[in-house]
Structures are given as structure tokens and as C-alpha cells.
Amino acid sequence: TQVLTKALQRGVVLSTGSLLVYEAHGLTSGFAEVHASFKVEEVIEQADYLYGSGETEKLYRLLVQHKNSDDADLLWRLARASRDLAQLSSTSAEEKKKLAYEAFEYAKKALEKNESNSAAHKWYGICLSDVGDFEGIKTKIGNAFIIKDHFERAIELNPKDATTIHLIGIWCYSFAEMPWYQRKIAATLFATPPTSTFQEALRYFHMAEEADPNFYSKNLLYLGKTYLKLNNKKLALLWLSKAKDYPAHTEEDKQV
To answer: Which first-to-last residue range defines the signal peptide (predicted)?
Structure first.
């Protein structure tokens, strides 16, 4: 019930016909090749159901069959599914890297198919950040401006997307707490390296909360962490307490 409620809160609406299609194709026990007559909308509805249910591997197996699609909404979901599969503790280090690059290619293709798709910009930024982890600090810092540009474009297209607003907050927080030696490297490599402040990060975390209150345990955590950085223990305690009491639906919630 909690999973379905969560899925519905994300805007997932499954018609009776979609559920029948879902059951008829045996998606819970294994995937047969998708019939050519399948509509993109039906695949997306099935994908959103699996995503809301936390069925990461089944979701990936469903969507990867459509990796040659020209539909941006399907492709960014495939990018997300590939990344989610990479994040699983059971995924090997070699497979994590492969999936990270795979996810980036799907996100890139989604953006090429529809530059006005907010989610495509969001997942392009997320996946670009992920591949930067495998390419060293110079690439990671160099990509930072591009990542932020895509997050900001995503918000322009969808101002109510609390998750993307949160991601810009994370971007600001990361550069605000960058160690001195990394700052030195950044200053050597770039004429104007990316910088930010904890005050700026805090503003985005609050904006995310205003857009969708209590939407994400990690946003509550970072509100608390940022207030700690700003030496406001009273407000830090308030937000950390909310994070601690947040219902743990996912592995990430438990980690938070």
C-alpha cells in the first residue's frame, strides 16, 4: 500500500487496460520480447509502476528492450533505470562503470530527441556527474558548469520539480565544502573555477521543500547538515530530527 501510494504521489496513473497488459506479458516472472504493436505510453505506464514498486532489475529489463526508441520520455527513464541498477550493492564495480556510461548515453540521446524535456536535462546532468567519477578531478570539475546549466534548464522547463532544485543545492554544497587542495587544483586548471557557499545551498534546499514539502529524506538531511555548517545547531536539530523520523521506503532513506 505504501509503495502504491508513493507511486501515485509521483503522478503515476495506471489504467485497468495497462494493468491487464502488464499481467498478460508476465513482467513479474520474466520478460518476453515486447510486441511491435506496444505503444510507448503503455511501456511508460508499466515502467512507472515498476519504478514505484522498487523493481529496479525488472524495470531495466523492460526498458532496455526499447533502447533504440526515439521517445525522450522513454529514454530518460532508461537512463534512470541504468543508473539505479548501477547503485545496487549487488552490482559489481566493473558493471557499475559500464552502467554509468550506458546511462549517460541514454540521457544524451533523450536530450537530442527533445531539448525541451525537463527530465532529460535533469538526468543528463546526473549521469554526466556519474561518469566524471571515473575520469578524474579535472574532468569532474570541468563538467560542473555543464551539469549546473542542465539542472537550471530543467527548472526553467519545470519550476515545480523539487528534485532538480535539490540537486542544485547539492551542487552548491559540494563546492562550498571542497577541500583546500581541490580548490588549489581547480584554480590551477581553470581561470574561474566553480564556487559556491553554504548560504546558497541552503536557499535551494528550502526552495525544494517549498515546491514539495517532505518529498525526500535526503533534502531534510542536507538542510540539517547545512545549518550545522552555518553553526545554527537549533535549526540543524530540527531538520535532522525530521530526516531521522522520515518513513524509510528505500535503501537510501535507511542510509539517511
So the answer is: none
- The reported pTM is 0.79
pLDDT higher than 60, residue 31: no
Cβ contacts of 120 within 8 Å, gap of 6 or more: 72, 75, 76, 107, 110, 111, 113, 114
CA dihedral 248, 253, 254, 256 (to 10 degrees): -130
Pick from 76, 80, 159: which is nearest to 120 by CA? 76
Say how far apart CA 193 and CA 82 lie, in whole Å: 31
d(CA 255, CA 239): 16
Pull the grid cell for residue 121.
Answer: 536535462
Distance CA 205, CA 199 (A): 10
pLDDT over 80 (residue 15): no
Distance (Å, rounded) from C-alpha 232 to C-alpha 192?
Answer: 31
Residue type, position 138, single letter: K
Helices (H), the chain: 2-9, 16-24, 40-52, 56-64, 72-87, 93-113, 118-132, 136-157, 162-176, 180-189, 198-211, 217-229, 233-245, 251-255
Q: Give yes or no for a contact between 133 and 140, defined as CB atoms under 8 angstroms apart.
A: yes
How much is the pLDDT for 38? 58
**Average pLDDT, rounded, for the chain:** 86
Q: Environment class of residue 62 by beta-carbon count within 10 Å: exposed (0-12), middle (13-18) or buried (19+)? A: buried
Cα dihedral 230, 233, 239, 244 sign: positive
